[in-house]
Design goal:
The chain is 44% helix and 21% strand. With 929 residues, it is an alpha+beta fold. Residues 29-180, 201-356, 377-526, 547-697 form the GAF domain.
Length: 929
């Protein structure tokens, strides 16, 4: 065990450590800093060898930066490889200090076993030198004795501080080394700019830039290529050292021309301002860009930087290397800056020519604007604009395309073609969504330089080829939004559209767009007026039809004509039917069809259910329909459908839907959709009105026939009663018969029956008449209970009448008696066997009385709710009041209201059913009539 020499006090130790660190940072070199730290380590912890190695992660080795031996032996190893799983490798990976005992015999020593034998080392301490978890090197303290260690806490903490200081020193060393090795483009670039100040012509300026770039990058060769915009190819203009032709006579010939079509991907990347880098392992672009350059120049590594002026491609600079290499960031930056200097250093003559072109274009645009605002005729305006624009741009064709929002695609609003081009078709295909969005988004013209290479506006390729065009420039006349019109200029040859030409087309297009917008507004106003008049005419005709099938057929025909649809269907269904039917259909295209032979199930058909569940117009594609619906409906691929339910009020039951179909490219305007909604809404109300009127007429006819039949039947019964009474009178005249009381009672009953039948068949033949009577309440209830006695006995019901009043009621008592009988009879019918039925009477005040019947039966909740509503929300919908027992109860309620009373059917808290009527005890004037 080695005993270190501790300082006298802790304060003295900190003072010594502070002084050492101060001395370290005052040193100017890294070697001096390492010597200062090593000396203090030896004072603090005496040992044989202090070794500091710099770690190289790529080579997996340690490079000696300091080796200080107490015995004076030389350390002969400059680079020491790291063996897998040796002690130093574990210290680097774990980032923690370690001790190795008897280094000469340890299997973990690796290359250090030989070093330990020569230096006489036994035990060593290893420290990883780190900065922010990045291992920069290793510190080794070797001792010629066994059992070496840092025994005190002060030693451990001090060594931790010193090792951290070593990390900062090695990090500084690595940064300084990197800065020394890195190329700095600023100084040679400033020298280039100074040299260019004395050069005025473009050719020598370009030569100077290429030579300076070649010297800085250190490539095999450096080239400058220029772009010919009319014929669309790059031609070799300059190479490094071009003034010394003999020096390059023995080298390989350069690539003289590069066609933009043959290098389309490269051309597109350069137009976008990209710098193309082809290195040893890393490429800046995809293989589609890299491979043509590598094949054309036959070089493994190269860089290409575009020369741009006002976003227009003038050419490019190219550096190439015969050997695979990775280009550094300063080299890329220098090449990019050099290409930019070319455009900045364009000769004054070129700039003056560009200014003259801009001035001429400005005067042309102003003249066109003046002619546009002086003439309101669309065709003459476009003819004048086309004549001047074709001469200025040297083009062969010009046209204005207007979107057809109804049928899709575009229609030609104006066209002009030269001698080399052909007339364009009057209708153009619709654009793909991505191209439509491109036109709507771009505020500058969309340029096509070569139709074979460019994928923009691909849907119009066939039209361009039919016209014999190879290049085009397209401008949205309403920039930044959906096109109201598109200005297209074309040329029979491939060409690049420069910035000046684009700006001219943009300036003229803005003027044409104003005229087109005004013309479009006038045309829309005319179309809206015509459509409004047509719709009003259709609505008036619908209101004049009084037959449901005629109404359905007229409505479908009118919708088909108004919206120019190839298929319009009207599906209807009844409330008690599971199948829908095709009530009316209009088919104007054989590719559309509908079959009525197959069943259309209301509950399972997708179209019907979507229409019922959606408020408004549903837009969908034919492919969205399930196979069940496709069995009865046939449409072309990708056809679009519009489905609208015949919806009236929210509480009305739906019984129909309109199905419209058209091709996929048809676009419906907001006005057309609104008109469709109005027409369908009007059809729904007219159809409902006719259906309701027809149902009420049918019901009235049935009731009139029934009333006629019953009255004639009662006339026959009255005749039979009169005949029976006459026969009874003749029988009474026989001796010994007329004195019997039985015959007198029978004759009196026949007389009462004849009078009652006479009143019904006479006074109440077609309407109820008032018949005021006075009846004791007790007698009324006794008669009612006698009439239901058979039902009570049949079910063995327990009945009880709760009446303690001797009141006499006056009014339409016969009708009230019939109502009460119906209620008591219904209570007996719905009561279970051996159930209970109670009849209660209770005067409410001096004018009103309440009669209630309670029973143990059950009543449908829907029936109670329908009676409580007081009126039918939908007379065409199914209701429990249309059948027994709801029909009889509804009649009772209606009669009680007409008599000035009230009828209530409800369920009590003990689940008993209560039927109650309230009516006035005295009735002078009957409301019946």
């Amino acid at each position: 065990m080695v005993s270190p020499v501790p300082p006298t006090t802790c304060e003295q130790h900190l003072a010594n450590l502070g002084q050492v660190l101060k001395n370290v940072w005052e040193q100017e070199t890294v070697d001096a800093q390492l010597q200062e730290i090593a000396s203090y380590m030896h004072q603090l912890y005496p040992h044989e060898l202090t070794w500091i190695g710099r770690y190289d992660a790529d080579e997996q080795s340690l490079s000696t930066m300091l080796a200080k031996s107490s015995s004076g032996k030389n350390f002969l190893w400059q680079t020491i490889p790291i063996q897998p799983d040796d002690a130093i490798q574990q210290v680097i990976e774990r980032g923690a200090a370690a001790a190795v005992y008897d280094l000469q015999e340890s299997y973990r020593a690796g290359e250090w076993k030989a070093i330990a034998k020569r230096m006489g080392l036994h035990d060593v301490l290893l420290f990883p030198i780190q900065r922010q978890q990045d291992c920069l090197g290793v510190l080794l303290l070797g001792s010629n004795r066994r059992g070496a260690s840092l025994s005190s806490g002060i030693q451990k903490k001090t060594f931790a501080i010193l090792v951290s200081t070593l990390g900062a020193v090695l990090h500084r060393y690595r940064q300084d080394t990197y800065l020394q090795q890195e190329k700095r483009p600023s100084q040679p670039f400033f020298q280039l700019l100074t040299k260019l100040e004395a050069i005025q012509d473009l050719e020598p300026r370009l030569q100077a830039i290429v030579d300076a770039t070649h010297n800085f990058v250190g490539a095999t060769r450096t080239h400058g290529y220029w772009f010919e915009s009319q014929q669309r190819f790059f031609w070799h203009r300059v190479v490094n050292g071009g003034h010394n032709r003999y020096a390059y006579a023995t080298q390989e010939s350069v690539l003289g021309q590069l066609s933009a079509s043959g290098y389309q991907e490269v051309y597109q990347a350069l137009c976008c301002g990209d710098v193309i880098v082809i290195g040893n392992d890393i490429h800046s672009h995809t293989e589609a860009v890299v491979e043509p350059l590598r094949s054309g120049f036959d070089r493994p590594s190269m860089m290409v930087a575009p020369i741009l002026m006002q976003r227009e491609l003038l050419g490019f600079l190219l550096v190439e290397s015969n050997q695979p290499r990775d280009w550094s960031l300063p080299e890329k930056r220098y090449l990019t800056a050099a290409s930019q200097v070319v455009s900045l250093g364009m000769p004054m003559s070129a700039l003056q020519e560009r200014v003259a072109d801009l001035e001429a274009n400005h005067q042309l645009s102003a003249g066109i604007a003046q002619s546009i605002h002086g003439d309101r005729d669309w065709q003459s305006v476009m003819a004048r604009c086309a004549e001047q624009l074709i001469a200025a741009l040297d083009i062969d064709g010009l046209m204005v395309l207007i979107p057809d929002l109804e049928c899709g695609g575009f229609e030609v609003g104006y066209q002009h073609h030269g001698t080399q081009s052909k007339p364009t078709p009057t209708t153009w295909r619709t654009l793909h969504d991505i191209d439509w969005q491109l036109l709507a988004r771009e505020t500058v013209p969309v340029c096509i330089e070569n139709l074979d290479d460019d994928l923009k506006l691909r849907a119009w390729r066939s039209q361009f080829l039919q016209m014999g065009m190879r290049a085009a420039m397209v401008y949205n006349l309403s920039p930044g939004q959906a096109p109201e019109g598109v200005l297209v200029v074309t040329d029979v040859d491939t060409r690049r559209w420069n910035q000046t030409e684009q700006e001219l087309l943009q300036s003229v297009g803005r003027q044409i767009g104003l005229v087109l917008h005004q013309w479009s507004l006038q045309r829309q106003a005319q179309q809206q007026s015509q459509m409004s008049e047509t719709m009003q005419w259709g609505l008036r005709n619908l209101q004049r039809i009084f037959d449901v099938p005629q109404l359905e057929q007229a409505a479908t025909h009118h919708i088909s004509q108004l919206l120019r649809l190839p298929l319009v269907l009207l599906l209807t269904w009844e409330k008690d039917q599971s199948d829908a039917r095709l009530a009316s259909s209009v088919i104007r295209d054989k590719q559309f069809a509908a079959q009525d032979e197959l069943p259309i199930l209301v509950n399972s058909d997708a179209l019907i259910n979507w229409a019922i569940q959606t408020d408004g117009v549903i837009q969908l594609e034919f492919e969205d329909l399930p196979d069940v619906t496709r069995q009865w409906l046939r449409c072309p691929a990708h056809a679009q459908l519009l489905v609208v339910a015949l919806r009236t009020a929210p509480e009305h039951t739906l019984s129909g839907a309109i199905v419209l179909a058209d091709r996929a490219d048809r676009r419906f305007s907001d006005q057309q959709m609104n008109m469709l909604a109005v027409l369908v809404h009007q059809l729904a109300w007219c159809r409902r009105h006719l259906l309701l009127t027809r149902r009420l007429h049918q019901q009235r006819s049935k009731l009139t026939e029934l009333n006629w039949y019953k009255h004639h039947h009662m006339d026959d019964i009255r005749r039979q009663v009169r005949e029976s009474r006459r026969q009874l009178t003749n029988l009474k005249q026989q001796p010994g018969v007329g004195d019997q009381p039985y015959f007198h009672a029978l004759e009196s009953r026949f007389s009462v029956m004849e009078k009652e039948l006479l009143r019904l068949t006479g006074r109440e033949r077609w309407a109820m008449a008032s018949d005021l009577r006075k009846v004791p309440l007790v007698a009324l209830l006794n008669r009612l209970m006698k009439r239901v006695q058979s039902q009570v006995q049949k079910k063995q019901l327990w009945t009880q009448v709760h009446c303690d009043s001797n009141l006499a009621l006056q009014g339409e008592m016969q009708k009230i008696e019939f109502i009460l009988y119906e209620l008591i009879s219904s209570a007996c019918r719905r009561s279970p066997a051996r159930g209970r039925v109670d009849v209660w009477s209770r005067p409410l005040d001096q004018q009103w009385i309440e009669l209630s019947i309670t029973d143990d039966g059950e009543v449908d909740t829907a029936l109670i709710e329908a009676l409580a509503q007081g009126h039918r929300q939908d007379h065409l919908a199914d209701s429990p009041l249309d059948r027994q027992p709801g029909l009889n109860l509804a009649i009772c309620r209606s009669l009680m209201l007409r008599l000035g009373g009230e009828f209530i059917l409800e369920t009590l808290e003990d689940n008993r059913v209560r039927s109650s009527v309230m009516f006035p005890m005295t009735q002078n004037n009957s409301p019946l009539g």
